[in-house]
Amino acid sequence: xxxxxxRHHKRPRGEGQWALGYxxxxxKNEENKKNDDGLNVRQRIIDVYSKxxxxxxxxxxxxxxxxxxxxxxxxxxxxxxGKTAILEPEExxxxxxxxxxxxxxGQLSLEQLxxxxxxxxxYGRGTAxxxxxxxxxxxxxxxxxxxxxxxxxxxxGLSTTEACGDTPRVxxxxxxxxxxxxxxxxxxxxxxxxxxxxxxxxxYSNLPRKFKTAISGCPAHCTVHEINDVAFVAVVxxxxxxxxxxxxxxxxxxxPMFGKRIGVFVRxxxxxxxYGGVIGIFRDYGYRRLRHRARIKFLVNDWxxxxxxxxxxxxxxxxxxxxGPAPEQPRDSRRDHVGVHPQKDGNFYVGFAPxxxxxDGDKLHLIADLAERHGSARVRTTVxxxxxxxxxxxxxxxxxxAELEAIDLQVNPSTFRRQTMACTGIEYCKLAIVxxxxxxxxxxxxxxKRLPAFAEPxxxxxxxxxxxxxxxxxxxxxxxxxxxxxxxxxxxxxxQIHLGGSLGVNPGFGRKVRGLKTTADELPDYxxxxxxxxxxxxxxxxxxxx
Length: 546
Ligand code: SF4
What we know:
- The protein is α+β, with helices and mostly antiparallel strands.
- It has helices at residues 4-7, 28-35, 41-52, 59-62, 89-92, 110-123, 146-155, 188-198, 271-285, 296-303, 305-317, 361-373, 397-406, 415-419, 437-450, 523-537, and strands spanning 71-75, 93-101, 107-109, 127-130, 136-141, 168-172, 211-216, 230-236, 242-248, 260-266, 339-342, 348-352, 358-360, 378-381, 387-392, 420-422, 460-463, 477-485, 491-499, 511-519.
- The strands form four sheets. The protein has a five-stranded antiparallel β-sheet. Strands 3-14-15-12-11 form a five-stranded antiparallel β-sheet. A five-stranded mixed β-sheet has the order 6-7-8-9-10.
- The radius of gyration is 23 Å and the shape is globular.
- Iron/sulfur cluster is lined by residues 423-425, 429, 431-432, 463-465, 467, 469.
- The site of iron/sulfur cluster has 11 residues, from loops.
């Protein structure tokens, strides 16, 4: 007899798929998750670790389950990138944590923003980085502070639950949901439903690997659906009904793949169930033998779209979904919502660019005060490390823009400020090989000085290691941190260059050109040469990624 399990059992050696009977953990991570669910660490943090201090933390919690609540130990200061791969994890661990707060849909009230600012100043030495997944990350967090931080967050409806770990992480949403003049639909309700049904549910807290979600009606496709594990992209079907096109299996990291269209039309009221089906497939059929093959993209790639759709419909939804159309192409190659733009209701939204996502507690307070004084009660984070203030009356816009720019939050930034992103890097990240934020910030300054007239769209993404937290493979210029040899024969911080990556109309991963490397010191010269060369050679209408 053919069972659902045997139907899918093609690989000669098990990949650790639960649905095929491989319940015994095949590696240390799986063992830790089986020994105790990541969600259970919360009570130990409250009852034990926060009271007895850092040294009381069980190592399996410290380097594993803490992530289920957004906590990672940060890198001990002063350890250079050459030691990253050599040292044991405990030698890299500082006694402080990075703490990630999930901001589903990037939606924040001023009250929430002020609580985030207070936590930064009280417990994070003022740190607050905007991530490229709409989260906020603090550094320097001590374990003793965590219960109070949670209490403050939870009092205003925020949390760190499943902000990291092998879990359903933050749900990306368009910052302009409900106000954009051209949006296909407002996805806020579906984001809320998925959040409320699945986040923190022990039935979905032991996934093979992280699981990234986007749900959006944005015509600019600002949630980068192509590189999420699952994405619901708003479309209008042939009957004029609004719903979603389902994409599964996108992801970057060391084996980049674009998500694939499953080809179904999902009504807004079906999003919760379809999400449950997709995450269920991942939990049950996802590969658990090797961490680097555990993301859902590998399963989708092996199965193909037809089989994925068949399993989703027959085993999980118990109903067929109709075929649906593909999304329209994005209206613009810039997806960041920076600048001043009209809303549906006659008001304006104002998107602004901090430097490489770096803000701080005081600045977050200033943003909240500025928004309030200009009649707004809502701010948003974007997937480009930017922020947006909503609902500004036409006669208040100029004043808000001037006040934001006065504190270096630029509403009309140069291309370089606007489109350069950087991951955390060696300052705090234990996997990093090189410094990123300061390097990228210096690069912006230099390029603004050297190429003041350059105004084309151009993305420059700076990563501190071969992981792709700052999406190097889809940037025009992607910089992958590594050690390189300089002219004097010394090993120094530098970057492998990926050129010509893009999303949107002609998606493609940047080409890694063998031998194309630069030292961090020479980075401004290198990028200036590439950009100048492009300007000289380009034909009419050609963009950098062409
Ligand atoms: Fe850390 Fe590497 Fe991710 Fe940067 S890309 S934050 S260095 S893991």
